[in-house]
Write a structure and sequence with these properties.
With 103 residues, the protein is of the alpha+beta class. It has a domain of 69 residues. 60% of the residues lie in helices and 14% in strands. It has a three-stranded antiparallel β-sheet. The longest helix has 26 residues. The termini are far apart. The relative contact order is 0.14. The model has no long low-confidence stretch (mean pLDDT 77).
């Protein structure tokens, strides 16, 4: 299956493919507050961007998680931020080794 992201725990990844690389997903709160048929009617691509978009619009997400709903959505951005910072730190270490080599 596809790689997980921080919002994966709130969805069910379906075996159907949206495209060559991404599976379809349904939101677990949509199943809980309605039924599986409703959730499948509102399926989306299993990417963090699509999950966030669905969560922001979904009344069931806000109903289930209340005041924490927006925090859940926007804390998922920290995953990308941490990865970018880690990559920058690795580049700096590599560049400093090169600089030392040439001195």
């Amino acid at each position: 299956m596809s790689r997980c992201h921080r919002l994966t725990s709130y969805i069910e990844v379906l075996p159907q493919m949206e495209n060559k690389y991404n599976h379809l997903a349904i939101f677990l709160a949509c199943i809980k507050f309605n039924d599986r048929v409703y959730a499948i009617g509102h399926q989306f691509t299993n990417t963090k961007k699509c999950c966030k978009s669905h969560f922001e619009k979904c009344k069931f997400f806000k109903e289930k998680y209340g005041e924490y709903a927006l925090a859940i959505v926007y804390e998922s951005d920290s995953e990308t931020t941490l990865q970018n910072q880690s990559n920058q730190n690795q580049k700096r270490k590599h560049n400093s080794k090169l600089l030392f080599f040439f001195l």
